[in-house]
Amino acid sequence: MISYREETNTDEPASTEAEQAQQLLRFGPRYMKRKLSPEILIFDVDGVLVDVRGTYWRSALETVRYLSGRRVTYQQLHEWKSRPGFNDDWRMTAAWVTELGRPTTYEEAREAFNRFYWGANGKPGNVRNEKLVITPGQIERWAAHYELNIFTGRTRREFNYTFERWTATGHFRTVITMDDVKRMKPHPDGLRKILRRRDPARALYLGDNIDDALAARGAGVAFLAVAPPGARGGRKRAAEFRKLGALGLLERATELNEWLAGR
C-alpha cells in the first residue's frame, strides 16, 4: 500500500484546431508573469501520467448511456470535462444524466460508473485498459533534480491499482488522492498539503483540465496544461487555460524537459 504522508473539447478538423490552440498558448516567456525555476514538480495522473481514454472516458460514456438510455459522444464528454467542478467523473456523470432528463444522484452515478470501470458479474472492467505514458526512466531523471509529488482526483484504490507495482512510484514524495482531502479539485487543498507551508513559487503543477488550473491558481502554484494533439475543443481549452494563468500548453508530459531547459 502506498501511504499518504501529511505533516501537520468544434466543427473544424481536429488537427487544425489543435494547431490553433498551440498558437493561442505556446510555452514561452511571453506568457510568464515571473521567472520560474521550480524545485517541486507536482503531477496530476489522468491525462498526464496515464492515458485514460479507454478507462475513465469510456466508463463515463457507458455510465451516461446506461442511466439515460441516450447515445452520447466523446465530443460531449470533452465539453463536460471543460466545465469547472467536474474533475470528479461521478459528479460529472450524475449532472450529465440529470440534464438529459433522468434525475440521478451522486451515489447512483458512482455505483454505475464503478461497474463499468472495475467490472461486474464476472465481466472485466475498463480498468484493464489502463496505460502509463511516462517511463520509469523519465521519472528517475526528474527525481534526480526535483522533488516529485502527485495530486490526483482518483481514489486511493484506483491509484494503487495502477501505481502500486510500478517501479517509479517510490520517487514520489507525497501522493494526494481524493480520499486524502475534504474538498476536491478545483479546491487547492491537495496542493497545500503537498507544499506544507512552503513557498508555492517553488512549485509547478502539471494537469489536463480546468479544475487542475483552478486548483493551481488557488494555491498560488504555477501551472502547465497537458493536452494531446488532435483533441477536439483544443482551441477553446487553450484559451481557458491561458485565461487562468497557465504558463504553457504541452502535448505530452515529456515536453516538460524542453520547457524546463528554457527556463
Key features of this structure:
single chain, 263 residues, alpha/beta, Rossmann fold, 2 domains, six-stranded parallel sheet, two-stranded antiparallel sheet, 11 helices, globular, disordered N terminus
The CATH architecture of the largest domain can be named as 3-Layer(aba) Sandwich
- Measured between the Cα atoms of the first and last residue, the distance is 36 Å
Name the shape in a single word: globular
Helix residue percentage: 40-55%
How many separate domains make up the residues? Answer: 2
Order of helices and strands: HEEHHHHEEEHEHEHEHEHEH
- Biggest sheet features: 6 strands, parallel
Low-confidence parts, pLDDT < 50 over ≥5 residues? 1-33
CATH superfamily name of the largest domain? HAD superfamily/HAD-like
CATH-derived topology of the largest domain: Rossmann fold
Binned strand content = 5-15%
Name the strands of the widest sheet in spatial order: 7-6-1-8-9-10
Tally of helical runs: 11
Secondary structure: number of strands: 10
Radius of gyration: 18 Å
Secondary-structure-based class equals alpha/beta
Q: Tell me, what is the CATH class of the largest domain?
A: Alpha Beta
Average pLDDT works out at 87
Task: Please outline the helices and strands.
Layout: H1 14-24, E1 40-43, E2 50-51, H2 53-68, H3 74-81, H4 89-99, H5 106-118, E3 119-120, E4 123-124, E5 131-132, H6 136-143, E6 147-151, H7 156-163, E7 172-176, H8 189-195, E8 203-207, H9 210-219, E9 222-226, H10 234-243, E10 248-250, H11 256-261
Parallel strand pairs: 1-6, 1-8, 6-7, 8-9, 9-10
Antiparallel strand pairs: 2-5, 3-4
Helix pairs in contact: 1-10, 2-4, 2-5, 4-5
